[in-house]
Write a structure and sequence with these properties.
globular, mainly alpha, AhpD-like
């Protein structure tokens, strides 16, 4: 599976996504590891195995970076639910001062540069829609020297990957013509 195969599978009504998939490799502000890690984290967060496989096959990531990108999506899958609940309940709720009691060691030791990991957490959080997590990870990226343009590229890649996953989830696979 590759990104070219994903492009071939996209229906005509989603032809813009074929071009937009180039956002992964055409970023002028993200290093290749940052862009590919963002794409992989976004694919995992979008929960489409075909998209995950295609991104993983084409990604120029070390095994450590690939594991960290997948780890970012995994930990955000948990944190985004928990902290979105807390946000919904409000600061005055009975839950605001209770400890999360969730194991999150990967955040402190992701195995890659901290800005890279935070970008990947941001991408996953944007997809799952946790406002607090989005704000916190964007803030951390910026505090660690990341730029607004890098954040925008990260979110652009996440948006495209999520749209591709959504489109493929709703597009039937047609049987091959044996004749």
């Amino acid at each position: 599976m590759s990104i070219d195969r994903l492009k071939d599978r996209l229906p005509d009504h989603a032809r813009d996504l074929r071009i937009n998939l180039g956002a992964i490799t055409s970023s002028t502000t993200l290093k290749p590891q940052q862009a590919w890690g963002t794409a992989l984290a976004a694919a995992v967060a979008s929960r489409n195995a075909e998209v995950v496989a295609a991104i993983a096959a084409d990604a120029t990531l070390s095994p450590e970076a690939a594991a960290a990108a997948r780890g970012a999506a995994s930990i955000m899958g948990m944190n985004n639910i928990y902290y979105r609940f807390q946000h919904m309940m409000g600061d005055a709720s009975a839950y605001a001062d209770l400890p999360a009691r969730l194991r999150m060691q990967i955040i402190g030791r992701p195995g890659v540069d901290g800005v890279d990991f935070e970008l990947w957490c941001l991408a996953a959080s944007v997809i799952t829609g946790c406002e607090n997590c989005v704000r916190n990870h964007e803030n951390t990226v910026r505090e660690r020297g990341g730029t607004a343009e890098q954040v925008q590229d990260c979110v652009r890649i996440a948006a495209v990957i999520h749209a591709v996953a959504l489109t493929l989830d709703s597009t039937p696979v047609l049987p091959s013509n044996p004749g």
